[in-house]
Amino acid sequence: MRIGELSRRTGVSPELLRAWEQRYGLLRPTRSAGGFRLYSVEDEERVRRTNALLAEGLSTAEAARLASGAAPMPVAPDQPLVEEFADQLRHALEGFDAAAGHAALDRLLGAVSVEFALTEVLIPYLRDLGERWADGSVSVAQEHFASHLIRGRLLGLLRDWGSGGSSSVVLACMPGEAHDLGLVLLGVLVSRRGWRVTFLGADTPFDTLENCIRTVQPTVTVLATYNARLFRKHVDAIRGLSTVTRLAVVAPVDEDAITDTGAEALAEGIAQAAESLATP
């Protein structure tokens, strides 16, 4: 069958099918006499199996591996090695050594999955960095340097984060909120679960956000701030936005204050938030 027919049968767009073929070797087409790619029933079954595994919460890479009949990747990598890479990353970033920081990230991402690197190394490191900045043991400059380098690398991983499956999310910070690294981390994790991500980032005006939502019609919209004052300032706008989209809010306020706007409070912790977004 041609790729259009495979797309019709599986509900996966031709663009995404081509991406799965190129990145993961999921499809194994032959060539017609005219040079067209022809896909088999076995290709169709692998696509259906990949979709089923994505629905169970696996990353696209792991779902494709399993659907192709490959052995699953090790769940527990060599912990001393991971800790060594994490220490190298910390020393490089807090020493303002960009080259060594990128090299440490390269080694880490070469040794473990992106999901493991985020949940077990980068998110804990950034949390610890913030705490040490708060108690004065690292400087503002060190915190900014480390955060910006990690943010840039993660955005580089996400050039294809708009090409996932049928579920989609819009990620935005409230007007006045300049810190969007948490949303970048969340975007990486949900995109690895097969979601399409529309990332608007810091300081997003509500009218711009609403126009985007009406155009994209996402499964869910995530709105974030780390400033309780900003949340209280925008309560009416949040309440209005919750009438046009499933809205999840990240803010340092009581859960009741969020649910009173018609939105839902996103689970604490970035990894837990990524998991909870998949639950209606």
Architecture overview:
There is one protein chain. The protein has helices spanning 3-10, 14-24, 41-55, 60-67, 79-94, 98-111, 114-134, 140-157, 181-192, 206-216, 228-233, 235-241, 255-259, 270-277, and strands spanning 30-31, 37-38, 168-173, 196-201, 220-224, 247-250, 264-265. By secondary structure, the chain is of the alpha/beta class. The chain has three domains: 3-67, Multidrug-efflux Transporter Regulator, Chain: A, Domain 2 (Orthogonal Bundle), CATH 1.10.1660.10; 79-157, Orthogonal Bundle (Methyltransferase, Methionine Synthase (B12-binding Domains), Chain A, domain 1), CATH 1.10.1240.10; 168-277, Cobalamin-binding domain (Rossmann fold, 3-Layer(aba) Sandwich), CATH 3.40.50.280. The strands form two sheets. Strands 4-3-5-6-7 form a five-stranded parallel β-sheet, with helices on both faces. Helix 3 packs across helix 4, helix 7 (114-134) packs antiparallel against helix 9 (181-192) and helix 9 packs across helix 14. The longest helix is centred in the middle third of the chain and has 21 residues, at 114-134. The protein is globular.
